[in-house]
């Protein structure tokens, strides 16, 4: 029967039950954990034992049916009721057991509620008994809300791995804890009883939270529900220095939060008292002076002993808790404290955890930060001082003697001759690093970077003083004031070191200058400085080393060699441990030995740069512009900072993401301030995180970062920013990328790069302003080009868009085009530097004559206006017959006799050509535009620019006049010949190519035509067609032609006209073909033709010839004119 | 995606074109710097870095305007799409004109890759033609204007109601045209060119 099986399975508990009933009372029949048994219990409470058994048996045999019949709607409500009953039972038992008068302290376990998981020794029933007896609670079912401790002896691996989900953050303790607590008759800290499997993980470093004053409360009532910090002190874990406070945050843990505190109420009272005191002290301290984050160290109990008498009795047993409250009591207790002077701030603000302004204060008290930002301050103070110059002959290096110490002790004469070191902390643990030591201290071998404890070992009476940043700043300012007073070329290296270029100083003798400066520094600041004078920075620096302390040294050029030969290589800047070791291996100790080695072998052994440096330095050669001291290199922003950021790698400990968020917010604020301080905004953001290596323990250096893995994520946004909100959003986003346990974070930094200066306003504006500059120049250049090309190439018509309109004039419209023509001319004259010369031959005089009189008048007006405006700047001429005389007059009005007469004559000649109505492929008109201011003659610079047809029209004597005026041209004759009889040739050739199907077929018709042509250039064209891959794109053919430089493109005289007309027709038809679909192609062709003009004038003329047509079809298809700019190579 | 619409080559190419226009118009707006560059974010389109408006309304304007054209482009009713930059007085300063040519009789299948390759060249050419463009004065505005070959029947579709006659003025003179890029493939031909007021344009 199943009943039997159940019983036998629970035989152990059966016996316990009997034990319980014996020991306490009969009704107390609770069993441990089996559901059936507890059901039994419930029944038992109200009914007879036997009945309960029967019920139990019943349920186990047919649990399904029992469930169906049960009054509970579902399992959840059943469990609620069950738990309630269990509690009631337990309470009843507990009250009876206490009444029954167990002798010992009733409530050792007050507030403790255990849950036993799995097999334990002693058994869960015995534990339950203990709980009953000593005021604790026992939960049959695990609940995060009710249970405070989980008791177990062993855990499966899966639960270890997933401890949090298993335990809900509750302590997992071995059962001996309960037994021992009972034996000790007080509640022991559970920490030493932590399950071994877990202890190894949790215990290996002190929890940061341990170091903050926590809102300790004796019982759960005092604990704010969501603060609910549980402080458990622990004394026995000696491996943890200063004790460990375990703080767990149980947000949900409201009702039964209970402090497990070894010390009991008494201690808590004291602790309370003490804390209140601390709270009062803390603000005073931090205001007081050194809000020194770096330095907070645990004070051990002896310190506290002296401070708090009330604390004494318990102190020995409460070491850990006491350390919570340790802190900066320097104002009060410096006398009592065992160490000479504790210059620490309160321990409260020393990590990311407890202190809201951690980041801010961190940077306030960081020496590296001070040095780093000092340069910015310096630059603001002395903005004009140049920071890079070569020292030609004389360089003075001024270096304050152990600046960081000297400044602090200058007002404390009693320390003057004692060994003093500056350090952020003087804790007995001695893990703080010394940042600077004075000369007496150095005599003991104390160096910067040494741990205080090591330094104390060497020199027990070493006095440790804290930083005084205010004083540093003041002294550094004075220092530089003096330097700047004596020399206008000061190159700052650090707050305490500078180079002066004294080559052309007022005082001839640099040595005397040095002594003056040194005296002044000493008088004004109370600190001494040393000076080194030499030919370059390297030697000056070395000289200073020799001069120190409080002296000066001059190394004249002739003594450089002697000086260097004796110098150990280690003394050279840039040679550190590693390099010195390497050199030593090669038996190189002094520069003399170093000099023997050739530069090549040095470079081979040590790398190019280092080898070069060694070679140079050993010879006293210093080619650098600036001194770059390693410290400065590490911390100071360069002249143009590439990035700005802030990084905190000390004291960073987080409990949860809220802490992290808070920290990031502050970090963003700091970075934002720095960005604003430098007047820049950044686009790229990098979040760096130092993550504790999984096997790294707590670092030796207190609150340091220890061994870390460096992680980073970055993001780039389109718009530069320095706003805190944006930074915050970005960092939050970036932080989200890290899949990281916040508890492992040991350092965080935010770096901003891709900086843009805010001075120039917004990026867009900046861009636009540059753009406008570019465009305006390019326009100018274009205009300039137009002018030059007009004069140079003889492109008379078609340079300007308006020409196209004129071209249309004859064919298409009348009124509006004339208007636009005139308007454009006027506009052009108003704006540009070049003047439009209309293609007169394209004008139909009949059209003009047939214009309404008011339109003609308007044209007149416009041209009148144009002319008047031109008078001031340019010579001009007009196409209007009515106005040609005016134009001549006005032109003559402006310019000198000879030059100006030509255009006017030409105008007349154009008139003639107009009357004669030469074909439209003819080119025409003379360029006459040139800014007078530039004194460019209106005369074309070469004959090639002269339109032959026009020339031809001129009277004989005038033509000769012009020709005589023109520079000689090698093709003068042929040109003239060719141009003097254009009409016949043109008509002939026109017929030859008049068919409109030049581009039809594959290969296009023209290829064959050109191939058989007797004209060289046309043959070349056909050839180019094949060479360019048989494309039907004219642009590729032209491109090919352009690239084949060797192909002769000269056109002989007899071929000229034929070739000209053929090419014109070719291009024209091509344009017609492409006008609908591909104006880009047309555009490219035009530009290529222009460029080909270099090779043969023919192309330029072709280009000009087809432009009127082109513009006409543009107007037809696109309602506009093609922008034609001349492309010069 | 509606397969039916895209079955015809015209529909297919119109869809690609519309998508392209949206990108191209945004690129033009970005290029002209009418908004701070931070208003755009970098995206990849046709394996090119392009810009996309961040502001939802700007994005929506471009998107809806261009997509509203889709049915008309399909039917070949849209002749030109212009991005017009103008001053307060509504006189245009600069016009970027896309001239469309959809071959209605084309029946073969559209090679999307080929078409996109051709369109891609527009986006490459556009930024380099920046020096040709004019500097906009501040307080500039802009609009997308579509030129129809024939006015659509208002009843035919809802889309056409979205379009209102533009009140931007025309230039009095013929503008100067600067071709930026042309392509002609079947069934879609597209040309992008720049229009500036001619030099003779009277200054208001």
Automatic annotation (TrEMBL), chain A:
<dbReference type="Pfam" id="PF00817">
    <property type="entry name" value="IMS"/>
</dbReference>
<keyword id="KW-0479">Metal-binding</keyword>
<dbReference type="InterPro" id="IPR043128">
    <property type="entry name" value="Rev_trsase/Diguanyl_cyclase"/>
</dbReference>
<dbReference type="InterPro" id="IPR001357">
    <property type="entry name" value="BRCT_dom"/>
</dbReference>
<keyword id="KW-0539">Nucleus</keyword>
<keyword id="KW-0460">Magnesium</keyword>
<dbReference type="InterPro" id="IPR043502">
    <property type="entry name" value="DNA/RNA_pol_sf"/>
</dbReference>
<dbReference type="GO" id="GO:0016779">
    <property type="term" value="F:nucleotidyltransferase activity"/>
</dbReference>
<dbReference type="Pfam" id="PF11799">
    <property type="entry name" value="IMS_C"/>
</dbReference>
<feature type="binding site">
    <location>
        <position position="497"/>
    </location>
    <ligand>
        <name>Mg(2+)</name>
    </ligand>
</feature>
<dbReference type="Pfam" id="PF00533">
    <property type="entry name" value="BRCT"/>
</dbReference>
<keyword id="KW-0238">DNA-binding</keyword>
<dbReference type="GO" id="GO:0071897">
    <property type="term" value="P:DNA biosynthetic process"/>
</dbReference>
<keyword id="KW-0234">DNA repair</keyword>
<dbReference type="Pfam" id="PF21999">
    <property type="entry name" value="IMS_HHH_1"/>
</dbReference>
<feature type="region of interest" description="Disordered">
    <location>
        <begin position="1"/>
        <end position="66"/>
    </location>
</feature>
<dbReference type="InterPro" id="IPR012112">
    <property type="entry name" value="REV1"/>
</dbReference>
<feature type="region of interest" description="Disordered">
    <location>
        <begin position="329"/>
        <end position="348"/>
    </location>
</feature>
<dbReference type="InterPro" id="IPR017961">
    <property type="entry name" value="DNA_pol_Y-fam_little_finger"/>
</dbReference>
<dbReference type="GO" id="GO:0005634">
    <property type="term" value="C:nucleus"/>
</dbReference>
<feature type="compositionally biased region" description="Low complexity">
    <location>
        <begin position="8"/>
        <end position="37"/>
    </location>
</feature>
<feature type="domain" description="UmuC">
    <location>
        <begin position="395"/>
        <end position="576"/>
    </location>
</feature>
Automatic annotation (TrEMBL), chain B:
<dbReference type="GO" id="GO:0005634">
    <property type="term" value="C:nucleus"/>
</dbReference>
<keyword id="KW-0227">DNA damage</keyword>
<feature type="domain" description="HORMA">
    <location>
        <begin position="11"/>
        <end position="194"/>
    </location>
</feature>
<dbReference type="Pfam" id="PF02301">
    <property type="entry name" value="HORMA"/>
</dbReference>
<dbReference type="InterPro" id="IPR036570">
    <property type="entry name" value="HORMA_dom_sf"/>
</dbReference>
<keyword id="KW-0539">Nucleus</keyword>
<dbReference type="GO" id="GO:0006974">
    <property type="term" value="P:DNA damage response"/>
</dbReference>
<protein>
    <submittedName>
        <fullName>DNA polymerase zeta processivity subunit</fullName>
    </submittedName>
</protein>
<dbReference type="InterPro" id="IPR003511">
    <property type="entry name" value="HORMA_dom"/>
</dbReference>
<dbReference type="InterPro" id="IPR045091">
    <property type="entry name" value="Mad2-like"/>
</dbReference>
């Amino acid at each position: 029967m199943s009943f039997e099986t159940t019983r036998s399975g629970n035989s152990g508990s059966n016996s316990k039950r009997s034990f319980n009933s014996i020991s306490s009372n009969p009704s107390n029949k609770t069993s441990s954990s089996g559901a059936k048994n507890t059901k039994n219990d419930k029944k038992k409470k109200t009914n007879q034992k036997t009945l309960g058994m029967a019920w139990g048996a019943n349920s186990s045999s047919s649990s399904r049916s029992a469930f169906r019949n049960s009054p509970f709607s579902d399992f959840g409500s059943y469990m609620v009721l069950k738990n309630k009953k269990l509690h009631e039972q337990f309470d009843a038992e507990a009250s009876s057991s206490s009444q029954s008068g167990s002798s010992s302290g009733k409530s050792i376990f007050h507030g403790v509620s255990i849950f036993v998981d799995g097999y334990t020794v002693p058994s869960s029933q015995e534990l339950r008994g203990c709980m009953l007896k000593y005021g604790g609670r026992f939960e049959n079912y695990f609940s995060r809300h009710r249970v405070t401790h989980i008791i177990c002896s062993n855990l499966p691996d899966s639960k270890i791995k997933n401890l949090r989900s298993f335990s809900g953050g509750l302590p997992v303790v071995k059962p001996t804890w309960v037994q021992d607590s009972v034996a000790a008759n007080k509640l022991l800290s559970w920490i030493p009883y932590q399950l071994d499997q877990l202890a190894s993980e949790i215990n290996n470093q002190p929890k940061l939270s341990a170091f903050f004053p926590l809102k300790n409360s004796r019982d759960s009532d005092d604990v704010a529900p969501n603060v609910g910090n549980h402080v458990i002190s622990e004394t026995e874990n000696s491996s943890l220095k200063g004790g460990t406070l375990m703080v767990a945050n149980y947000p949900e843990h409201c009702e039964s939060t209970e402090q497990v505190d070894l010390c009991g109420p008494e201690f808590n009272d004291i602790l309370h008292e003490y804390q209140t005191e601390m709270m009062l002290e803390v603000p005073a301290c931090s205001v007081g002076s050194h809000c020194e984050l770096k330095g907070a160290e645990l004070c051990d109990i002896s310190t506290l002993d002296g401070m708090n008498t009330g604390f004494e009795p318990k102190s020995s047993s409460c070491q850990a808790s006491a350390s919570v409250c340790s802190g900066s009591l320097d104002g009060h207790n410096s006398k009592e404290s065992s160490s000479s002077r504790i210059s620490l701030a309160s321990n409260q603000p020393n990590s990311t955890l407890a202190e809201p302004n951690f980041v801010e204060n961190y940077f306030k008290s960081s020496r590296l930060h001070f040095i780093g930002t000092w340069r910015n301050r310096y630059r603001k103070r002395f903005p004009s001082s140049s920071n890079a110059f070569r020292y030609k002959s004389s360089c003075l290096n001024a270096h304050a003697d152990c600046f960081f110490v000297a400044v602090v002790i200058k007002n404390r004469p009693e320390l003057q001759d004692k060994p003093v070191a500056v350090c952020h902390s003087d804790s007995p643990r001695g893990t703080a690093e010394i940042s600077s030591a004075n000369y007496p201290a150095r005599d003991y071998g104390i160096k910067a970077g040494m741990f205080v404890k090591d330094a104390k070992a060497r020199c027990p009476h070493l006095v440790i003083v804290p930083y005084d940043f205010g004083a540093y700043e003041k002294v550094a300012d004075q220092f530089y004031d003096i330097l700047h007073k004596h020399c206008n070329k000061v190159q700052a290296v650090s707050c305490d070191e500078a180079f002066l270029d004294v080559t052309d100083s007022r005082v001839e003798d640099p040595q005397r200058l040095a002594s003056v400066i040194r005296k002044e520094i000493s008088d004004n600041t109370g600190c001494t400085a040393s000076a080194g004078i030499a030919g370059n920075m390297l030697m000056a620096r070395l000289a200073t080393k020799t001069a120190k302390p409080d002296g000066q040294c001059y190394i004249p050029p002739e003594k450089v060699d002697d000086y260097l030969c004796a110098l150990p290589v280690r003394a050279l800047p840039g040679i550190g441990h590693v390099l010195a070791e390497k050199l030593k291996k090669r038996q190189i100790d002094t520069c003399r030995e170093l000099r023997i080695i050739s530069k090549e072998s040095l470079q081979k052994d040590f790398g190019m740069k280092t080898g070069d440096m060694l070679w140079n330095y050993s010879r006293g050669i210093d080619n650098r512009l600036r001194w770059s001291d390693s410290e400065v290199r590490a911390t100071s922003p360069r002249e143009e900072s590439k990035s700005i950021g802030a990084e905190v790698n000390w004291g960073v400990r987080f409990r949860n993401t809220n802490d992290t968020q808070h920290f990031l917010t502050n970090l963003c604020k700091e970075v934002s301030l720095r960005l604003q301080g430098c007047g820049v905004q950044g686009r790229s953001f990098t979040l760096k995180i130092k993550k504790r290596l999984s096997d790294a323990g707590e670092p030796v250096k207190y609150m340091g970062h220890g061994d870390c893995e460096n992680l980073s994520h970055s993001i780039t946004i389109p718009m530069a920013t320095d706003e805190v909100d944006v930074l915050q959003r970005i960092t939050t986003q970036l932080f989200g990328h890290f899949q990281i346990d916040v508890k492992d974070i040991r350092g965080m930094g935010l770096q901003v790069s891709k900086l843009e200066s805010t001075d120039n306003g917004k990026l867009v504006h900046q861009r636009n302003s540059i753009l406008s500059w570019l465009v305006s120049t390019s326009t100018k250049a274009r205009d300039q080009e137009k002018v030059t090309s007009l004069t140079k190439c003889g492109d008379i018509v078609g340079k300007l868009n308006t020409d196209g309109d004129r071209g249309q004039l004859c064919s298409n419209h009348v009124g509006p085009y004339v208007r636009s023509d005139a308007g454009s001319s006027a506009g052009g004259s108003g704006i540009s530097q070049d003047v439009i010369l209309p293609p007169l031959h394209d004008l139909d005089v009949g059209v003009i004559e047939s214009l309404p009189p008011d339109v003609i008048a308007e044209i007149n007006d416009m041209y009148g206006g144009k002319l008047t405006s031109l008078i001031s700047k340019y010579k001009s001429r007009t196409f209007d017959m009515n106005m040609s005389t005016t134009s001549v007059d006005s032109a003559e009005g402006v310019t000198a006799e000879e030059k100006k007469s030509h255009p006017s004559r030409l105008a007349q000649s154009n008139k003639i050509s107009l009357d004669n109505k030469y074909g439209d492929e003819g080119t025409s008109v003379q360029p006459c535009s040139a800014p007078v201011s530039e004194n460019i003659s209106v005369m074309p610079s070469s004959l090639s620019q002269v339109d032959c047809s026009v020339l031809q029209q001129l009277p004989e004597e005038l033509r000769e006049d012009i020709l005589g005026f023109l520079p000689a041209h090698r093709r003068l004759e042929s040109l003239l010949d060719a141009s003097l009889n254009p009409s016949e040739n043109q008509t002939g050739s026109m017929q030859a190519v008049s068919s409109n199907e030049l581009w039809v077929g594959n290969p296009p018709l023209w290829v064959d035509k050109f191939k058989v042509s007797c004209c060289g250039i046309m043959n070349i064209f056909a050839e180019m067609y094949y060479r360019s891959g048989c494309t039907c794109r004219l642009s590729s053919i032209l491109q090919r032609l352009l690239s084949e430089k060797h192909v002769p493109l000269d056109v002989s005289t007899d071929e000229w006209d034929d070739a000209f007309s053929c090419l014109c027709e070719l291009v024209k038809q091509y344009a017609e073909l492409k006008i609908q679909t591909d104006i880009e192609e047309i555009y490219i062709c035009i530009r290529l033709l222009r460029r080909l003009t270099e090779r043969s004038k023919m192309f330029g003329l072709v280009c000009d010839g087809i432009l009127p047509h082109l513009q006409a079809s543009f107007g037809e298809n696109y309602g506009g004119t093609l922008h034609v700019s001349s492309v010069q190579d | 995606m509606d397969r039916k619409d895209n079955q015809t080559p015209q529909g297919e190419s119109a869809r690609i074109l519309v998508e392209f226009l949206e990108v191209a118009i945004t690129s033009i707006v970005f290029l002209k710097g009418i908004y701070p560059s931070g208003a755009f974010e970098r995206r990849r389109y046709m394996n090119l870095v392009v810009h996309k408006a961040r502001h939802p309304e700007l994005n929506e304007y471009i998107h809806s305007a261009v997509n509203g054209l889709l049915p008309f482009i399909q039917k070949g009713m849209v002749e030109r799409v212009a991005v017009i930059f103008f001053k307060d007085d509504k006189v245009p300063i600069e016009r970027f004109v896309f001239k469309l040519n959809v071959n209605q009789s084309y029946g073969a299948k559209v090679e999307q890759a080929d078409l996109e390759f051709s369109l891609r060249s527009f986006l490459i050419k556009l930024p380099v033609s920046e020096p040709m463009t004019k500097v906009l004065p501040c307080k500039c505005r802009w609009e997308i204007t579509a030129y129809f070959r024939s006015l659509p029947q208002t009843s035919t579709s809802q889309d056409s109601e979205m379009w209102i006659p533009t009140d931007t003025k025309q230039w009095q003179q013929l503008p100067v045209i600067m071709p930026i890029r042309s392509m002609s493939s079947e069934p879609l031909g597209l040309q992008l060119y720049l229009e500036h007021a001619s030099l003779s344009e009277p200054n208001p």
